[in-house]
Design a protein that fits this description.
heterotrimer, A alpha/beta, B mainly alpha, C alpha/beta, C: six-stranded mixed sheet, five-stranded antiparallel sheet, 11 helices
Chain lengths: ~280, ~260, ~300
């Protein structure tokens, strides 16, 4: 059970003045149940890459396999694939269109042709999982706050019960609290539903607390694909490609440079605190 | 792909055509369109095509890029051709059951197709070589006499230029919303007419909401930058006729003459 | 003699300072703004106080940051600076002008320019230079001077090479710099930026903040930056924290960031090193409050070693 990308190339507007190779020879295996952070700055190809996962964009060359089946086979059912690989786009609140929150969430499961009862059950469950209370389900989605709208939109995809959940910058434009809430809920969903989650972000600090694997994209290629700890050890190279490791990583390296022997391989504030205390107590 | 539509866009370059006064380009395009309807035979179309080719060459806009503009109107084009092909009476060339194609029909369909293609290529060349702001300025200046009839010329011109600026943004947005709804299992491609129209709701509602939100934002941004209509405004790029504009007028006059002459052939 | 001339300089400086204290850039007194929602018949359904008794003063040449979570009222306050909104109660003066005075509205908008969140929705023209010229055109500036202003402002934000480009082909950070140039061309005394970085990636964010700081330092423009990113405010002269329509904290960045718990209670973050230093201090390390940068942090930890 996995997504396999085999030597994917993708070219935008081929044979025009605006021709641009968005993805270069990408090979990637995403195993079941993984929690992955996909990092890269704007234009690095990360948004294009995730649209290959459910066949919304077809590679110029290369193959995509879902659970061993080639999704570019002529008789492969792409609709079935989109049911299994749920994609939450950037600013997903801009896709809301129904008159009530509940109806909007029901849109996805209804398209799957489920019974009315199943549609309801899934919608209520998804709304609950993203923390939208019963008092809001009959409200118009356009009356909600920005953070609430976003959570309704995520519920719309969750209600389709995907096996893989891909979220493109789910925290863009939210304030710190809203960001932490959404990331916390995504982590909880990952744990409870045991589904694969791919979190696209341009902030290392945001994902470092949650994911177990980080894929760094740069210029349409994969620059790093490793655990957060190992990826952040390349903090200097990361900076060159316009990304940054979490600030605490830099702080630990700065301490080490001044001759304070702390563990530099930290990714979170908690780890950094332990590292400094370990040195301080020994000193 | 939706974002491949190039009609109505500006193509930045530095050609004589780009530097021409927008008023000349606007009136020239108008004259050119009138000429296309004056044309009576293939000689006239040939003259128009040659002139257009020369102007395209001058404009430094890649030909392929201009042709892509036709994609957007291909349905209209096919419809016109079919309509003329099957519904013109005259000497039959081909008959099968109720379908009948006449010699006159073929001629007319071909002429209509050529006319339409020349018309679209010509007018999109104008938008390729003129920034929307220049276009607006030109239109505003040409239509100024209408001000006396209380037509809000400046406002209309401003509206047009903003519409042109937001076309690519909204096209991209359409593409994005479409994909987002497809990811939720929406189906825009199959089903009957009614079903397809229904399927458009999840696309159109967000698109309209987004357009209105953008309109609100933009209005506020314009107000914050002291926009208060055309009164008391100065121009960064005021329009002045130059020598090349005079030359362009002469060329246009020659073109008109040639087209009139071809009518006699 | 040496002393005497020195004195004169000092005296003059003081005089300027004295004048400045009278002519504040922005001054509000007990500002209240209410959003009134009406039902279909036009009856008042609910009244929300978006701003509640806000009194602030911003001196000329300052770099002031306003922090607050979404819905805290910070954007509503920003829109008051530009007379896009006017107070329900209380008053707001921009460069000595009352924003309620409708005759002064264009002067106020010229004095306090505004940059908004979404870069796409504030660029009007399809060529960079034409967009920057839009403001001066509205002000009725003569053509020749428009060109001078456009060039100067585009150079000030480092976008002069892009003057002939279409905004659609620029990155988010570049678009925001164009928007800033568009405001600069109106020769404002103050720029209000309403979450200009919320939709940008880290590179774009840095670009915009760097540009704004430069304008503040080199051109002496008063800056009012509204944001929820903490890294962006550590260079500010003054930080104002808003919550629920009220000003809840005010002070230098160091004073504000020393209060980690309080900030968190207002749904705000602190930079990672600030939080790390705070946690280490709680765990018993003798570190000072309000550490803002990695350098300060390293120095403080080194001091513990001795």
């Amino acid at each position: 059970m996995s997504i396999i990308l085999d030597k994917i190339n993708y070219i935008y507007s081929p044979n025009t003045a605006y021709e641009k190779q968005a993805l270069k020879n990408i090979s990637l295996v995403i195993e079941d149940g993984e929690f992955i952070g996909l990092i890269g700055h704007t234009g690095s190809g990360k948004s294009t890459l995730i649209q290959h996962f459910n066949g919304l964009v077809k590679a110029t060359s290369g193959g995509v396999y879902y659970n061993g089946a080639d999704i570019y086979d002529t008789d492969y059912n792409l609709k079935e694939l989109r049911k299994k690989v749920g994609l939450v786009f950037q600013y997903p609140e801009y896709q809301l269109f129904e008159t009530t929150v509940l109806k909007d969430v029901q849109f996805g499961p209804k398209n799957l042709g489920l019974t009315a009862l199943e549609v309801d059950l899934r919608s209520y469950e998804a709304l609950k999982q993203v923390g939208i209370g019963d008092d809001l389900i009959d409200a118009s989605p356009f009356e909600l706050s920005g953070g609430q709208k976003r959570r309704v939109a995520i519920a719309g995809v969750l209600a389709m019960k995907p096996e893989v959940l891909v979220l493109d910058e789910p925290t863009a434009g939210l304030d710190p609290k809203g960001r932490d809430e959404i990331l916390g809920q995504i982590a909880k969903i990952h744990e409870e539903r045991k589904i694969t989650v791919v979190l696209v972000s341009h902030s290392m600090e945001d994902v470092a607390d949650y994911v177990e694997r980080i894929i760094v994209m740069d210029g349409g290629s994969i620059a790093y694909d490793d655990t957060p700890r190992n990826v952040f050890s390349h903090y200097k190279e990361l900076e060159e490609i316009g990304l940054a490791a979490p600030q605490v990583t830099y702080a630990m390296h700065a301490l080490r440079d001044k001759g304070i022997p702390v563990d530099v391989n930290v990714t979170t504030i908690e780890e950094a605190k332990e590292a400094v205390l370990a040195w301080y107590r020994k000193d | 792909m939706i974002r491949d539509i190039t009609i109505g866009q500006y193509y930045p370059s530095d050609s004589v055509l780009h530097r021409l006064d927008p008023r000349v380009k606007l009136s020239g395009t108008f004259l050119y369109i009138v000429c296309l309807f004056l044309v009576k035979n293939w000689w006239g179309y040939l003259a128009a095509a040659v002139c257009l080719a020369a102007v395209i060459k001058l404009s430094k806009v890649p030909f392929g890029y201009i042709v892509k503009g036709l994609k957007a109107v291909i349905i209209l084009l096919l419809f016109t051709v079919m309509f003329n092909l099957f519904l013109t009476s005259g000497t039959p060339v081909f008959e099968w059951k109720f379908i009948r194609v006449t010699k006159e029909g073929i001629d007319l369909a071909a002429a209509m197709a050529v006319r339409l293609i020349l018309l679209i290529l010509g007018s999109s060349l104008m938008t390729f070589t003129t920034t929307p702001n220049q276009l607006t300025d030109g239109l505003e200046s040409l239509l100024r006499p209408l001000n006396k009839l209380h037509v809000p010329v400046h406002e209309v011109a401003m509206m047009m230029s903003i519409a042109l600026r937001f076309i690519p943004i909204l096209l991209e947005e359409t593409d994005k919303i479409m994909k987002a709804q497809q990811a939720r299992g929406a189906d825009f491609e199959t089903g009957g007419l009614i079903q397809r129209a229904k399927a458009m709701v999840p696309l159109l509602v967000p698109l309209f909401i987004s357009a209105f939100r953008r309109a609100g934002d933009l209005a506020m941004a314009m107000e914050a930058r002291c926009y208060h209509g055309g009164k008391g405004r100065t121009k960064m790029k005021p329009l002045h006729y130059k020598k090349r504009d005079g030359v362009a007028w002469l060329v246009l006059a020659m073109f008109l003459a040639v087209v009139v002459v071809t009518r006699k052939l | 003699m040496y002393c005497k001339s020195d004195f004169r300089v000092l005296g003059r400086k003081k005089q300027f300072a004295g004048k400045d204290t009278i002519e504040k850039m922005v001054r509000s007194e007990n500002l209240i703004f209410e959003y009134i929602r009406r039902d279909e018949e036009g009856n008042v359904e609910s009244i929300t106080k978006a701003l509640d008794d806000v009194s602030i003063t911003i001196s000329k040449g300052d770099f002031v940051a306003i922090l607050g979570h979404n819905g805290s009222g910070k954007s509503t306050l920003a829109k008051h600076m530009n007379a896009l909104l006017v107070p329900t109660e209380g008053t707001l003066f921009v460069d000595g002008m009352d924003t309620k005075d409708e005759e002064k509205i264009w002067e106020i908008r010229q004095a306090a320019g505004m940059v908004f969140q979404n870069p796409d929705n504030q660029i009007i023209a399809t060529v960079v230079e034409e967009d920057v010229g839009f403001g001066p055109e509205n002000l009725g500036v003569p053509t020749k001077e428009i060109w001078e202003r456009v060039e100067k402002s585009l150079r000030a934000v480092g976008m002069y090479e892009y003057r002939k480009h279409s905004p659609n082909k620029l990155s988010g950070g570049q678009k925001q710099r164009v928007a800033i140039a568009g405001i600069m061309a109106m020769k404002p005394q103050c720029i209000v930026l309403d979450e200009p970085t919320a939709m940008l990636d880290p590179n774009g964010r840095k670009e915009v903040v760097r540009t704004v700081r430069e304008l503040n330092q080199k051109e002496g423009v008063t800056v009012l930056l509204i944001t929820h990113y903490m890294e962006e405010v550590i260079y500010a002269d003054k930080v104002i924290v808003m919550d629920d329509g009220k000003i809840v904290m005010q002070g230098t960045p160091r004073e504000i960031f020393a209060q980690v718990e309080k900030l968190k209670s207002y749904r705000m973050d602190v930079p990672q090193v600030t939080e790390l230093a705070y946690k280490l201090k709680q765990a018993g390390m003798p570190l000072p409050d309000g550490i803002l940068s990695i350098e300060e942090f390293v120095e403080a930890v080194q001091a513990c070693a001795k």
